[in-house]
Amino acid sequence: MSSDRLNPALRVFDACSASEVVAADFHMHTTWTDGSASVVDMHCAAIAAGLGTVLFSEHARASSGDWFGKFAAEVRALPAEHCKALVGAEVKVLNPRGELDISNAVRRECALVMASVHRFPGETDIRKGRDAGYSEEQAIGIEFELARAALRAGGFDILGHPFGMAYRRFGWVPPQHLIRELARECARAGIAFEVNARYHDRPADMIALCREEKAPISLGSNAHAPEEVGRLQRVFRSVPS
Ligand SMILES: [Zn+2]
Ligand SMILES: [Zn+2]
C-alpha cells in the first residue's frame, strides 16, 4: 500500500537483497558544499566505478541561496549515456515535529529529497560521546524520535543514514528493535531507508532487516571525494556474511 507512494527513481533499488546490491549510489557531495571534487569529477568517478545511476545529494538549508539552482543545472547537464545523474538535497530534521530545513526553491529543483538527523534541536556545537552530556539511552532516544517524527510528517523521499549519530558521533549501537521500528515507519510512509557505507558497517544485515520490514531501500556511499564513490558496493562485497 505504501509502495505506490515511493518516488519512482528509487525503484532502481528494488532488486537489492542481502546477497546482491545494484550499481547505484544515491549519496554524494561536491565542492558546492563540503566535498573535495566537482560535479563533473564525481560523475566520472561514478562511471569508472561502473554505476548506472547516481544522486547528487548536496547539503542544503532553507537559507541556501541561488547557488543551488546553479548546482542543479550542472547536474542536469551531465551526459546520461553511461550513468544517469539526479539532482538531490540532503537536509536536516529541525525539531521534534519532524520539520525539515528546506525551501520551496530547493524542493523544486530536486528529483529526490533526503532528510537526515545531523544534530539535536538547540545544539550549536557538535560534541562527541560523553562530552555531549547525553546518556546513551537519551541520545539514541532523541535521534529515534526525530527520525520517526520526520517520517510521519513526510515531504521527503529518503531517510539519510538512520541512527548515524549513534553509530558515528557517539560510537553506540542502537537496539535492533528501534532500527526495525524506523524501517517499519519507512514502509508505512513509502520513504526509503538509506543503507549508508559511512555509518552502517554491515550493509547486508541492514538490507536484510529492511526487506523483512518491507521498507524501501536507498544505497549511499556518503562520498565526499571521487575515490569514495561506490563505496557501499565495495563494503558490501568485502564484509563476510
Ligand atoms: Zn548526513
Ligand atoms: Zn551526506
Features:
seven-stranded parallel β-sheet; 7 strands; 8 helices; alpha/beta; single chain; TIM Barrel; globular; binds zinc ion; 241 residues
Summary?
By secondary structure, this protein is of the alpha/beta class.
Architecture overview:
With 241 residues, this protein is α/β, with parallel strands linked by helices. It has one domain: TIM Barrel (Alpha-Beta Barrel). The chain has eight helices and seven strands; from the N terminus they run βαβαβαβαβααβαβα. A seven-stranded parallel sheet has the order 1-2-3-4-5-6-7. α3 (104-109) links the parallel β3 (84-92) and β4. The radius of gyration is 17 Å and the shape is globular. The mean pLDDT is 94. One zinc ion binds at residues 90, 116, 118, 160-161.
Helix/strand layout:
Layout: E1 24-28, H1 39-48, E2 53-59, H2 67-76, E3 84-92, H3 104-109, E4 112-116, H4 136-153, E5 158-160, H5 164-170, H6 176-189, E6 192-196, H7 203-212, E7 217-220, H8 231-238
Parallel strand pairs: 1-2, 2-3, 3-4, 4-5, 5-6, 6-7
Bound molecules: zinc ion (2 copies).
One zinc ion is lined by residues 90, 116, 118, 160-161.
